[in-house]
Sequence to fold (202 residues):
Amino acid sequence: MKPVVSGNMVTKPFFVGWDPKDAVMDDPDNHIERYLDKLTRMWIDPDAAKRHLKKKGNPLVYEVYEKEIPQRDGEIQFCSSITHPGKIGTEYFMTKGHFHKRRDTAEIYYCLKGRGFMLMEREDGEHYLLEMRPGRTVYVPGDFAHRSINAGDEPLISLAVYPGDAGHDYGSIETSGFRYVVVEKDGRPEMIENPRYGRMLE
Ligand code: S6P
Ligand code: ZN
Fold:
């Protein structure tokens, strides 16, 4: 059957399959892939990222499969968000993280596979780190930047659902980062202050 989403307009109701084995959306319109070579500045140790690239190659850190839904009020965006297992130095693989362009829009992440965390931080510094595991839905309220972190050894896979006109604002996270990061210490995840907070582009 032809996809029922054409261009930027939903023309009629549609469905997507969700492969129960790999927990990922079938038949997406877009596939976004984020490789390490484009993400070297987001870690607490950018030199460790460069060493990783030199010695171990350029891993796929995370990817998103999504349907193309009109970006307007009243619509619902949804996607498969997949963060792969791995570390840069002691820091777990994670997504870039973003605020929504329309700041007051919330999002839910229904975790289907893997183990990890959702890190959330508001501009005033209020922050939360909630564990993600299969069967758990994390609610990210409006005004919180959010980032998925994979602290396990298999892909961390969620169904993310958010308002049609939420949009993405990556700017301030790219520049300043999150105030906190999650690293592995003595074999366990630990949240510590980000030593590069406010100067991620240096
Ligand atoms: C979109 C939603 C997710 C992320 C995905 C990748 O609002 O939060 O689909 O886009 O997890 O993360 P990022 O930070 O690169 O957009
Ligand atoms: Zn989001």
In short: The two ends are 50 Å apart (CA to CA).
